Amino acid sequence: MAIVRIDVLPVPITLSVRRESLTIFQDDRAGQGVMAFTFDAAGRLVSAFLDGKTYRRSLANDVLEKSAGPQAGLAWRARRLLERHEVQQLEQRAYAFARQVAAYLEADKALQPNDADRATALDFLSRIALYDFARLEAERETYRAIYGRVPIMPPDQYLALALQATEGCSFNACTFCGFYRDRSFRVKSPDEFRRHIIEVKTFLGFSLSLRRSIFLGDANALLIPQPALLDIFDALHRAFDIAPNGLSPAELRAWRAHCSLPMEGVYSFVDAFSTRRKTVDEFAQLAERGLRRVYVGLETGDAELLRFLGKPNTPADVLELVDRLKQAGVHVGVIILAGAGGQAFAEQHVAHTVEVINHMRLGARDLIYFSELIDYPGSEYAQKAAQAGIAPLSVEEIEQQMRVMRAAFRFAGSPPTISFYDVREFVY
Length: 428
Fold this sequence. Notes:
Structural class: alpha/beta
Strand content: 15-25%
Shape: globular
Low-confidence stretches: none
Mean pLDDT: 93
């Protein structure tokens, strides 16, 4: 990483230059406040911080705005997608500022002609100059032709490279989930998947350097019969450098430095019903080929609530799946649906979820995500809850539910990371 400072301006500017991104940071404590824009190596705007609000841009040129809510706490945070004219205003401001910084840096180069970091920053800024709102907006159609849509990914994979071995969800009947309602499930043929990889790589170009891992989607990709799934993993190895298993952080950094398209592993969603045919040995074969972590929607440890949510498995099925994965050397991310079942199920949801989690052999490289129940309009869940007279939990009650569960979790060794997963904050 290189740090370049421009001090000839009324407001000092700092540039943080990495192989995969450039961030332009301005901190005018006496006037305009903090402002920051991050661009990827191709020149696409990635994120911004303005007027106390955070913005994240998707490859489809949508922009998510996040800001503090009326109270402290993640569940209170305000979120919204910008309107198209607001996206245009934000991007015009970002790229105009980048051009201004490039002009100042060019002028300053005469004073410091042998500064390698400034030369690197100017090279990066020259790629940024090739972009503007019109080009980013035109890329929306390219994105849609390649992906259609990437409905959801786990928070630790928001910067993963999404590759769709499947489209949609094979089950697609959970009462609370609307991510895949607009598409039928299908598995791509080997030739189609290989073309998909080429299309994604061509579209992203230099932006690939921002991606550290591969997320194999959409949902239930691991249900693909094992021979075909192994072919998919072999195709990934031909297209990318995938890190060997078990590297230390220092070894991983050294490995990345010698690779052209380094990916630290393959990640995917998995369920406890359609993949019950996968054996420990089959999961171990995938682990050998780079499968590092899968994300399991436990939702709740209460069997009655699972049925209300439309899940066809039992808590015991999830326990058995996690055990097979752990035996195979695959880490897990377990997702708990906070607030599910409202007031009627609250007590049993907490008690039985804690019981199930405490029976899992989770460790330091596993994750537990609390995901607040976010119902989609017209959902079956909302209809069933209304018919049963079930009152939803308030935001305060949901946060309390998460605190109670977390305090009751018990782990034999180093604990997993426990975090919050807000599906409203995903854009790709």
